[in-house]
Amino acid sequence: MDVTYALLCLLTVTSFLAPGKGHARAASDLDYGLDLVNDLLTNDPEALCKYVQCVNPVDEAACPEGTFFMAGIAQYGCCGACVQFRGLGETCTGSIHPQYCGGYGIYGQSGTCTDPWRKLRDLRNSIEENLYTQDNVIKSSWCGYNIACGGGRKCEIDPTARGCVYIQRKYDEARDSGFYLDYRDDYRWRPTCSKEGFFTEKQCKGPYGEQRCVCVDPDGNRLYGDAFPYQEELYDTMNCKCSRRVWELQQAGEKSVTLHCAPNGNYERLQCEDGWCYCIDPATATPYGSRLPEGSMDRLDCYNKTLVGSQYLRRCESEYHAHMELYDLMAFKGVQGPSTLLNCDADGSYAGKQCSVDSCRCYDNARNTIIAGLAGSGCQCARDIWMNKQLNINIEISCEVDSGSYKSVQTRADYAFCVDTDGVRAGPLVYQSAAGNLGCSAALLCQNGGDQKNCENACQGCTRDDYVN
Fold it and tell me: Alpha carbon of 22 to those of 15, 25, 45, 127: distances in Å?
């Protein structure tokens, strides 16, 4: 077969996949072209995509309500599209799970993901290409995220789903059933989840009026960035886009990330990467204007001499970046370079917890002062005390003995309560006379979707009079 005819076949297939009436009826005329396509899919899938014209819109922002943008899912895996999954009660042929591997097939059947292309192939097989519509929506025969295809081939709640959506569901069930008691359970908070069921970048936890908003990864683990309601501007504008991006780059193997995040996890206006600087809107995380060499960053509209000075990199990241450059150079020459225990925050300053070979201590963000002799499980408590002093805020905080981490039970005035690792109230508010009854571990389980017994044991043996109104 000559190249010209091969291209003609490919273009014909592309036309077959484009939206419009009658394209499904042409399938019988394309058998020979499909053989060629299958051969390319097996041996050189990238070659096929050179001849496929993607149907617009092909980005997430253009997807209508109730659909999910998925890259490489349509038109033989060459294009992105908006996928509409089956909903509760609808007939189905399989399930999808945010983690993909093991989430395929009928509920109750196990699956593996040894083939890296399996998740895409299986998902494509569930998509009914002949239902392609003009707004680039393709319909899947699978149930959507966090619901499962049951034995009756109907989509139902997936009882095995955990994480953000699970906590949401358990919280709602407690409220709807009347099991949630305001005086006992007011510390429980409802997380914000993405469409796929992961934790969104920003989570505000704790009782109303006592909340602390923090930045987290998709599994809810703490990242750099937080704000209290009294930090009005930081609190109201917080989106954590920068902190999440730094995490993503680190997960991708970036050794030295030079993005600068604000204290609330947003982008700072001036950013420099690989010797080039640009401006970014913290509210939208969208770059704007020109990109200039780092030596000319002072010509950018977003440059602030007071904040930035003459050098973009700050003390900690400058030290870390220089070390990693030396490490990479030695690795290039076949020599194992020295490791470093230096720990920087996402704003370029020193992280609270800094370790040597034999111990870890808590420092201020300039690493000038030891604020806790031993770090314990972390330095959040010591850092919060240090920060409050800088802001002239007088709040009673208790850290573990010889540690920078929060003491699990805090007392203020006549009251006592449990806190989590961020110092947020994570248990019922009781009078100090009942402080010994607090079950902080049970309260933590209750918050994270535990059973009724966990919530009751958040204050073991407590009567209604032990709780503060």
Answer: 11, 5, 27, 18
Q: Of 25, 66, 84, 74, give the one whose Cα is nearest residue 48.
A: 74
User: What is the model's pTM?
Assistant: 0.78
Annotated domain spans of the chain? 3-49, 60-157, 199-340
350 vs 68: CA distance, rounded Å = 39
Question: How would DSSP label each residue in 258-282?
Answer: ---B-TTSPBPSEEEETTEEEEEET
Report the distance separating Cα 181 and Cα 353, nearest Å: 38
**pLDDT value of residue 443:** 97
Q: Which residue has the tokens 């450059």?
A: 325
Whose tokens are 């000075």? That residue is 309
d(CA 114, CA 102): 10
Distance CA 394, CA 415 (A): 17
Measured distance CA(75)–CA(361) in Å, rounded: 55
Q: How far is CA 71 from CA 13, 60, 68, 83, 358, in A?
A: 20, 9, 10, 10, 47
The pLDDT assigned to 315 comes to 93
Find tokens 């571990």 and name the residue: 441
DSSP 115: S
